[in-house]
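Re: Re: token formats

Sure, here are both.
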Amino acid sequence: MSEAPVLAAVRNRIGHLTLNRPAGLNALSLPMVRLLHRQLQAWAGDPQILAVVLRGAGEKAFCAGGDIRWLYESYKQADGQHDTFFVEEYALDQYIHAYPKPVLALLDGFVLGGGMGLAQGAALRVVSERVRMGMPEVGIGYFPDVGGSYFLSRMPGELGTYLGVTGVHVRSADALYGGLADCHLPVEQFAELDRCLDQMGWNVHPAEALRTLLATLAANRLPASELAALRPAIDRHFALPDIAAIRASLQAERRPEYRDWAEETLGLLEGRSPLAVCLTLELLRRGRALSLADCFALELHLDRQWFASGDIMEGVRALLIDRDKAPRWNPPRLADVTPERVQTFFAGFRPSAGKTRRQA
């Protein structure tokens, strides 16, 4: 049983799911997606199950994303499995967002890409001090998916835009400040949380019982949020209409408290896939006005073009296959990405009729 990629157990009317590929940072495979979805569906219809706890095995990661190397090989072999993976992964993520019972996600270590897709749908997201959370896709020539166009675009101000187009990771205080987490629990308290879960009497609604328990265990003292300190600069620069304007504004930053950050941010943008950076900005701007379902549908629309016409195959080759760390992006510079090129990827997409931002 310990060899299974997903472990499932029931204790005290709680279903426990553990991503069980610690050597691979619990990266998601297609079998894992299917096991998770099947088990969640079974527990949704079981009146004996009141809540679900989701976690990753090991100390390094909750989940560091999808199995990118496998997706690369699938596309090369033209077996269609990479497309199946995205369809089923997004369906799982969307299912978690609407799950009829509270899902408690215990987030420790890396929570990246596909891990964010699982976590952001959970009713309660608990982060340890070791969390490194983010959507780093632009670094491999891809764009924030798994609902990233929904949850990033709904972060306060322009925080989600900044995280999406730069691909930076954030720590627990920033995750809480940005609305990507609900509670901070020191990692040494995770075992105590499990003991308490095993002894809960369920005298009130499960969601209320879980929130009350977390409130009694949560750390009261947190480090300061770096995003909070940077918020005035982030909102000013990343609200601009396009990447060219954002870069020019960052280059013109003269306030001493933001100058080093602006230089670092420019360096990050220059090191990412130019096409992915520009497409991500457009994706997040569109995502603000779309429902959750339409965000997933739009991401899938982009997926079905990106392996052939985007930068992901070159990014994975350079960073994971040949490891020369010298991707040949197409085009090679941010200044060479035209608005027309970006818009071609969105052509033909139509949101569901009748959906509005308020309904999202």
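Second one below.
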Amino acid sequence: MQRHPVFLIVVLGFLNALTPFTIDLYLPAFPQIAADLGVAVSRMSLSVSVYFIGFALGQVIYGPLLDRFGRQRPIYGGLAIYVLATLGCMTTKSFEGLLVFRFISALGGSAASVGAIALVRDHVPAEKAARAFATLMLVLSVSPLLAPSIGSLIATVAGWRVIFAALAVLAIFNLALVIFVIPRTYSPDPSVSLRLAPILRTFGDALAQPQFRTYTLAGSLSFAGLFVFVSGSPAVFMDGFGVGPGGFGAIFAILAGGMILGGQLNHLLLRYLASEQVFRRALSLQVIGGVTFLVLALTLDLGKWATVALLFVFLHCAGITYPNAAALALKPFTKNIGSASSLLGFLQLGMGSIAAALVGVLDLTGPLPMAFVMATCSTAGWLVLRSAGRLNQ
């Protein structure tokens, strides 16, 4: 049975949203988890970093598997691993155990994200991919809009362990979508090797493609600000500004609204401008926003709402750059799309993890470290795009 394209993209959006929900849902419960496991709240950010690392590694594992065995089977296996590891998070008695299970759940859950991106390219023509990825981003934005508030409610009513039970149920729901809703149009390619040397050659060939390299690097640096915000925001708002779990969820929802508006604006802009033009202009505005954030953080004692406003502008631009960067990076490929999308995800996660870790190294106190890393990443992305020059399409 043929599915309507918009319906299919929404379904893939739910699949792709598993990891953001896995991160955002438990953020308001940081103080509760830390108290129960006997660690400082500041150490809880390690559980986010560990997840990012595992998720990045999972990207390069599942790409070749998706090309070799088809889309469904690797996703089945990954989601099964995710469910078991998430139940491990729910039952662990130590912080170290939480870190181990978070890492394993990231390795499993990454199959959903890599698979969703590959499936978009399977079902959507290259010239319409930017709009499809924008719709994917819209569904993805539901996570930071709703997850912290839901997580805060669950933690208050039932305790933080039930949050992980809810995540396991969400993964099972995603598994049902893959089994019963997503059409099987991709034929497994037995010629794709699972040996390390050929896999590395495939990744090397992707990086040798100028368009993939340029938009992957520039887009990843632009999108890194989101990882900086996710990992650093509990300390900035809950510890620094004294915001409670409910208020933190509301702030998260406001900033998610910035990304949603960015995705919707992207739909409108693509009617009049090429994807390359939209990406370039949005990235330039993001650089201006990031540098402004840094300058004001250096010269003023920024309050809670000023910080929210500046983050809103930065994340609004990320909502525009992300779908265009993904579509443009994958546009040259007609085969090995799974491997290319996994490498794209690995670099996005890798750069985001480094950026998030850098905030911790800078000893996060107030919004200044966050502003510094965001301004640095967006400017570096702009320099990558600038140095590449005009690409021949």
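The mean pLDDT is 84. The longest helix spans residues 210-240.
- S.
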